[in-house]
Every structure is written in structure tokens, then in C-alpha cells.
Design goal:
The chain is α/β, with parallel strands linked by helices. Helix content is 35%, strand content 23%. The chain folds into two domains: 166 residues, Rossmann fold, CATH 3.40.50.300; 104 residues, K homology (KH) domain (GMP Synthetase, Chain A, domain 3). The longest helix is centred in the C-terminal third of the chain and has 18 residues. The structure holds guanosine-5'-triphosphate and magnesium ion.
Amino acid sequence: MSKAGFVALVGTPNAGKSTLFNRLVGERLAAITPKPQTTRFRIPGILTKGEVQYIFVDTPGWIGAPKNVWHHSLNHQSLTTAKEADVVVWVIPGHKPLEAFPEAIQTFLEGCATLIGALTHLDLLPPTERSTRIALWRSDLSPFPLKALIDVSTDQPLEPLLEAIAQLLPKSPFLYPPEELTTLPTRFFVAEILREKLYQHLHEELPYGTEVEITTYRESPEKDYIAATIYVEKESHKPMIIGTKGQMIKKIGMEARKEIEQFLGKSVFLELYVKVAPAWRHSQRRLHSLGYQLP
Ligand SMILES: Nc1nc2c(ncn2[C@@H]2O[C@H](COP(=O)(O)OP(=O)(O)OP(=O)(O)O)[C@@H](O)[C@H]2O)c(=O)[nH]1
Ligand SMILES: [Mg+2]
């Protein structure tokens, strides 16, 4: 009998959730950057291997001290995904001490019967320290009912994690056709590529105040036409995104277009607009219209 189910990847910002998620599904579906709060929405990615179908869900990082409605939405999406999942993989940066996270999440983890710990970043430690550090984690994490604790740093294979998850998944027919990769529409991944470029090129607080909306997506046999609006919080942020003589927006657009073309396997015409959406991170209405799920 086959097995199938949902596997939530959760943890603090920058833990390496999206890196692990992309490695598991074998495609660069989620944006990865050195900045925290890169992932803003839950992203499903399907892996069908032999008799097992894993539906991984990448999630935003937990924010210990939420400051605005946006932060509450990120925490809410992460917690509801974990609660709905068959297996929860808690991604932990193994080279740092355990970070603080919201009480509701602590309570959930303490009672989660299908929890697996996944340590990342251990490749940054001297090889002689690695096993000692894993033993320390085992003891530090003893209050949590972990079914397994696995080193999934980028220099490690993922088979041990896949096997541990398969043990916990329910017997079930496949929930999606085996060749399916995700359930989100293409336009979501186009926006995700643009978000990644904004995080890569903008500095300090600026990327966090931007959001991307795909306003037109017209397919045609030779070339798709895509128009996207980049929202900023303040009028004074607009020139920073556009840059001197439009250099910055041109660079972001060109790099994004190349990646979108690679993702779609066809040419695209990408048009970018910059608009002000005042304090969108504080507005329930604006967050809702940008597709955020609110608590
Ligand atoms: N050396 C090393 N770097 C890693 C590892 N995993 C992730 N990284 C890096 O850590 C940074 C954050 O990785 P992400 O995958 O974006 O982390 P995330 O948990 O998805 O972050 P948010 O979406 O912002 O919550 C990136 O620069 C990654 O390249 C790892 O095992 N080893
Ligand atoms: Mg991420």
C-alpha cells in the first residue's frame, strides 16, 4: 500500500527551510537569500518516490516578537501549516544557540506526535566538533518529542530524512499525479523570483517594505507577457528602487526575466511598475488583497 501526506518545514527565519525544501523537491521553487523573512507564503512542493508521495510545504520563519500585522500573518501561516500537516520537520540552524520563538509555537511543538528535528549549517563547524554538537542538540531538544534528529546540512544526503518522514506518513493513495511538482499557479513563482531579486539588490529595511503583485499574465506561443507591480511603503522609497536613470529597476527586471525564462522554458516580456501602498504591512485590508492569510 502506498503512503502520502503533508510535511511542513518550519523554524526560525533564515534556518535554511527553503534551501532544504528546494533540495527535497529538486527544483528552485522557493526564494533563498541570506536575509531573514524571505519566505512570505506557504509553498507546496511534491516529491513522489517509489510508493511514497511527500507533499512538502515551505513556510515563513517564526517571528519571536511580531511588530506588525504582516509578522502576525507570517507566524499564522507557519503555525496553521504545521497543525494541518501529517509530519512536521523543524529546521534548526545547528551552528547557533536555539532562538526564541512564539509561545503558541512552543506549545504546539511540545505536543506534536510526528516531529522530526533537521539540523542545518553544521558544515560551518570544524569536522571534529560536528558530532559533539549533534549530541548537545539531542540533549537541548529533549523537552520536545522528536521522532528523529537528522543532520541535513547542505553537504549531507537527504535519504535519512526521507526515510524518517516515510515512517510517519499515513497509508494512502497518492493525492496528486506523480509527475506534479506544485499546486500553486505559475504566476506565484514569477512573483517569487522577483521577490528574490528585490532581497538580493535592496539593502537594510527596504526589501521588507516591498511586495510584488502580478497584474497581467498573458500567454502566447512565442513569448508570454507579464506585468508586475512592486509596492513600496513610502513615496521616498520609489527612487531607491528605480535607481539613478532607472539603473536599479532595469537590473532587477533583467535578472528576474532571465530566471523566469529559465523556469518557464520560454521567452517572456516583463514589464515592471513601482507604486506606493502606504504602510501595507500594518493594513489588514492591503495584506488581504496581496494574498496574505491573516489570523
Ligand atoms: N553553510 C550553510 N548555509 C546554509 C545551509 N542551509 C541554508 N543556508 C544558507 O542560509 C541562508 C538562509 O537560507 P534560506 O533557505 O533562505 O532560509 P529560510 O529558513 O528559508 O529563511 P526565511 O525564508 O527567511 O525564513 C541562505 O544564505 C542559505 O544559502 C546549510 O546547511 N549550510
Ligand atoms: Mg525561506
